[in-house]
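Please go through the sequence and fold tokens given here and tell me how the chain folds. Record follows.
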Amino acid sequence: MSTLSYIKNTRLGSSLTILLVAALLFANVTIPAHAADNGISGGSATTILASMGIISPDSSGSYNLSDTVTRAEFAKMIVMASSYKDLVDTTSRSSPYKDVYAGHWAAPYVKIAVSNGLMSGYSDGTFRPDSTITLEQGVNSALKLLGYTASDFTGAFPSAQMNVYYNNGLSKNISAGVGTLLTRGSAANLIYNMLGTKMKDGIGTYAENLGYSLNASGEVDYAAIISDYMNGPYTVKSSDWASELGMTASSLMIYKNGSVVSASDVDIYDVLYYSQSKGTTWVYDDKVTGIYEKASPSQNAVTSVTVSGSEYTLESSAAFSALSSTGTLKIGTAVTLLLGKNGGVADAVSSTVVNASAAVYITETGTKTYENSNGSEYTSFYFRGINPNGSEIEYAANQDWIEPGDMIKISFDSNGKMSVGTAKSGSNITGTVDADLSLIGTTSIAANATIMDTNLGNYTATSLQRLDGVRFQHGDVLYYEASGGKVTNLILNDVTGDTAQYGVVTYAKSNESGLSVSGTYKYMIEGVTNTLTTPDRSLKVGTGAAKFYGESGTIDDIQRLSSVTQVKSFDAAYVTSGGDTGTYPISANVEVYSGSSGSYELSTIDAALEAYKSKQMVGFYYDKDPEKGGCIRVIIHQ
């Protein structure tokens, strides 16, 4: 499974003409340092595309570049990369298609993409927003933005279009071919490559035609545009922060973690950047809590710090003042780093100040050697986890009863002494998820809510779109926080199954000798073979599709997957059964193999589709029913 979809102990973590500067200042500039380009071409590509609103990270800071892109997601990407983006009205409540409801987040983008010929709907009056898109379909949309029309191509689609794609450098850093499902990374590469591509008429590049200036390397000079207009970072320390900056809160456009919010949503110790002339602020609440272990190159001239094993670069004088030898934060103490828009340290405070009371989902426990403020080493039990907003936290504490998967509550008294107990969030949340209405049953979910799914100390970010149609039962919600009548942070108890890994068992043998029972199992995940030995038990699993899981990221157990029977139809997004079990969505990270009886080779979904069309044997395997969060995890074809 891709590390972008399986997240364990990682930090969760715009018109385009003469008005370019103003538009960029209203963009969601969310560029965590840990969110590397991950295959997007060019060192500044992620920054540029995120600033334009073309890509954005999830609550964990991940861009999920290996995930397939849906038609709805691509509609937003292609519109935000065009001059039509200024026509987007996110407050519009019109329904462009019968399956794109008026309240659907993508409705305004779909409407503009279709009305301007960048995409099209289907003859049955649907758009199919959740279906995937192929490379050639994405290329066709990009070519239209470059000025090409249907009259420029002859022959069957997409041969001529793909020739232009390859000949003009649009394929740089994209390994996919015709028929391949487009991933978020490939879609981002396609659009980034398009920025530097000559228009069909040969007059300037696409970026220049949108009003961008280019630097000496021929890339969009994003930094020069944005830096002159943005002030910060500034640490929020009172509810009167706007007037302290010389602005009126009620007249500001405020973005927090990618969503438009009100001034009341800005919390103490958030970090913000602002433009007085544009009346805009960008707010971030990404924090890391842990033991202050090291200052580099020294605490007298600190430029970076190591907190709980990870190094962070300082990006402000406030951070230097707090973490240097003249500051109040000493090496060996627990601190909270307040991270800025680029993932650097914008400020730092004592962890007892920020986390006066906090819920923590435990991901790891053990013992570790620390250094106190006097430079002496000591060994202590520690626990690591995540707060409901997705921020990491680690403490050295004599609480050896805590285990991965626990949900705890920590609090501090006036002397900084920590108390630990079990976290409780009140009444449970049950009912069916309606992503369009942002509801779980009758419970309202905030538009920018952080949703984490967890199991055995593992966790992954998820979304209402991923959960759409899932029926929540008692026990599915471990913990939640709410504000203004809406849930803002939600921690789930293994609802999606996405924290596990999936693949095939290629060899399974149980050994029994007297009272001794053991087992040996070989398996493949993403085509890589590994072995699991169970010295004290045998697993009830044979060769074939399986789920692999264990505590805190390890694999120590295997479970057989169920097979869909009476398959009626299969496309790249869904498998439909002719029986009573209905329709199964296909996981964005589905594992596809060819072979049988333990002899398997990694394959592709395109190959599986061809096998299915050719009436060959194709098996579809799921972890649990879709209404419980399950989906097709493994496909095996002959």
The chain has five domains: 20-220, 230-284, 287-422, 431-493, 500-638. The radius of gyration is 26 Å. The chain has a mean pLDDT of 84. Residues 171 and 308 are 41 Å apart (CA to CA).
